[in-house]
Amino acid sequence: MTTNTEKIFAFIDTYTEESEKLYLEAVIEACREWLSGGAQPALSEIPTKEEIRRGIQLAVLKGMKRNAQPHHQMTPDSMGMLIGHIAGKLAKGNQDISLLDPAAGTGNLLYTVMNAIGNEVTATAVEIDDLLVRLSAVTAELLEHPVTFYVQDALRPLLVDPVDITVSDLPVGYYPDDDNALQYELMPTEGHAYSHHLFIEQSMNHTKPGGYGLFIIPANLFESEQAALLHPFLKKRTIIRAVIQLPDSLFKNAAYVKSILILQKPFAEMKVTPDVLLAKVPSMTDKKAMSLFLQKIDLWAGE
């Protein structure tokens, strides 16, 4: 039996293959046709938001492989679902949760988290690539998610109100605009700043007191060249709540292994600094081990 996700992908893919436009441009057009009612996937029942997201994601992944560009990458579902689970537990069923993704790309990570939280969740997405913003925007419409988009360098001044939770698959590398980076505490005295460091600082600047930052980081973040600058900043400006190592099996190259860093912004009512959760995600194919791991996360989030 063909699933709704497969039917949605088939609809977008068929439409796109028949178009003369570039694949990702045609994906946007196919989604707009769906929104307008001009053409629709042959669905026997109303799809869930996750089915819609995954169907579009499959088409976007195909387009990215066809027209490979180094900055066109998508956070794998395994990471997104884990961050969504954690964010949902930290939100604790509260209404009117606000999110920010300062490096939103196609929005796949952001929408995975929004789907996991549910309730009345709103979001702001910042992305410098116009094509990715248009993909993200049409996906948000189909998902009926209220998202505000900013097409800009997220490390420049953001006209964004503080949010409850910031999520980001951090762009890794050097930030080339030294003049702009001078406004950040994490700008080193010599050389370029790490963009992923600046994204952490910018994200926490736009997070409410008591709010959280959930970041996908390089596993060697705390041993890297500029770690000596990062350590005192995190100690002064944030509360490190967790460092969660992702399985090596998720990555083709050991040099690109990632972890999840969870920060909380200090707030006046906080009386005791909570312990830091240090954990390693088991193999995601081991259902029993993953179940135990998620129970551990749930207990930690409920403290």
Automatic annotation (TrEMBL):
It is an enzyme of class 2 (transferase). Keywords: Methyltransferase, Transferase. Its EC number is 2.1.1.72. CDD domains: AdoMet_MTases. One of its GO terms (molecular function) is N-methyltransferase activity. Residues 75-281 form the DNA methylase adenine-specific domain. The keyword Methyltransferase applies. Gene3D superfamilies: Vaccinia Virus protein VP39. GO terms for biological process: methylation. It holds the Pfam family N6_Mtase. It comes from the Bacteria. PANTHER family: ADENINE-SPECIFIC METHYLTRANSFERASE (PTHR41313), DNA METHYLASE ADENINE-SPECIFIC DOMAIN-CONTAINING PROTEIN (PTHR41313:SF1). This is Site-specific DNA-methyltransferase (Adenine-specific). It comes from Sporosarcina limicola.
